[in-house]
Amino acid sequence: MPLSPEQLEQIDAQRSQTQQTLRVVSAGMESHLYKAHEVLDHGFVRVVDYMGDDGAIVQAARVSYGAGTKKARNDEGLIRYLMRHWHSTPFEMCEIKLHVKLPVFVARQWIRHRTANVNEYSARYSILDREFYIPAPEHLAAQSTVNNQGRGDVLTGDEAQRVLDILRSDAGRAYDHYEQMLNQEGQEGLARELARMNLPANIYTQWYWKVDLHNLFHFLRLRADAHAQYEIRAYADVMCKIVADWVPAAYSAFEDYRMGGANFSAKGLDCIRRMIAGEEVTQEGSGMSKGEWREFEAALKG
């Protein structure tokens, strides 16, 4: 269970407190504030603070004092224009701060997005909990034979059980040794900052992660993609639902132009124009490598 009864009680207490404010609020985001959305077996994502809404994006683009005289559909059209033409600064006017509980190996992927502010739970000062990510059977897959970064067929039967047994036993044994090494219960022991080095990469950590909407969209474009590793994609999928409620017009444009759209090279555009003109274009006559051509065909087929 990702959250203890005490933690759930604390969240309910936070959500019960309301204050009057002159700042802009997003009704959709208010419904998510402080709630923990469960991810994987012990993880979660929860919003602890945010700034701005769709109106803040429009206001920044127009540098206006307020809502102005434009109609909502014009605001949505402007947001779509900004997204379509890769404008970034208006989207940077919105920010979100998340509390995330995630496996360490997922955190190592996540931290590659260096445009956020991060503060992680410190295993130098505190003792990590005995919580490890163990994949569900349907996500236990062999190495892909065609993609060095991907997964192949799902393991089944005795082989799947063998792998799960190894994962559980290794994680448990490492944590047992971690506890045995710690300076606690009257023994001299090892400092926490050293004892932690023996812990496996599937142990859970936590952090606060604050990012603006422009860079959050970049994170989601990569991590909510079907080709992303499942474990980080599970977090991105939850975040997509939160963002869709927070800034619906901006998220709709993002979904259309970034998630559902495609970018083509100059060679790709030339091939499309030739195809429209009725010419039969092959990889050999496209000027593209075999890899580029496969990706080009995949984008056309959708």
Automatic annotation (TrEMBL):
Known catalytic reactions: dUMP + (6R)-5,10-methylene-5,6,7,8-tetrahydrofolate + NADPH + H(+) = dTMP + (6S)-5,6,7,8-tetrahydrofolate + NADP(+)
Per UniProt, the keywords (alphabetical) are:
FAD, Flavoprotein, Methyltransferase, NADP, Nucleotide biosynthesis, Transferase
Q: What is the E.C. number? A: 2.1.1.148
Which region is the signal sequence?
Answer: none
Its job: Catalyzes the reductive methylation of 2'-deoxyuridine-5'-monophosphate (dUMP) to 2'-deoxythymidine-5'-monophosphate (dTMP) while utilizing 5,10-methylenetetrahydrofolate (mTHF) as the methyl donor, and NADPH and FADH(2) as the reductant.
Task: Give the record's family classification.
Answer: Belongs to the thymidylate synthase ThyX family.
Name assigned to this protein: Flavin-dependent thymidylate synthase
